[in-house]
Amino acid sequence: MQCSAIKTDGKQCLAQAIKGQNHCFMHAPELNKQRKLAQRNGGLARKHQQSYISWEVQLRSPRDIQKLIEVTLSSLLKGKMPAKSPASQVAYLANTWLAANEKGEVVDRLEKLENLVQKVLNEN
Question: Which of 9, 44, 62, 121 is the most exposed place for a label (fewest CB within 10 A)?
C-alpha cells in the first residue's frame, strides 16, 4: 500500500506504507523519535568521514596523478576505502593510471627534447 501522506508540494507521497499502517517511515507520526534519531545519525556519520590519503595532494603533472591513483588503488584493494563496486572501480582506476602514464611519458620526452634544444642553442 502507498503512503497516504500529502507532501508540502500538494503531491501524494510515493513511498510504500509500513505494513499495517497508512504512512511510510518518513510520515508516520508515531515514529517521529526514531526518524529524528535516524536523521541525526546519518548526519553524524557524514561528518566523520575519514581521509584516505595522508599527504597534501597537489596535482601538477601526470606523474602526480599516477601517484594519487596508485595510493587510491592500494587503499581500495586493501579494503581501507569503501566501494560499492570494487571491480569496476579498480578497472576504472587502472585504465586512468595507464592514460596518466602515457601522458607522463610524453611530458618526460618533451622536457628532454626542450633541454636538448636549449643546450644546442646555448652552444651556438
Answer: 9
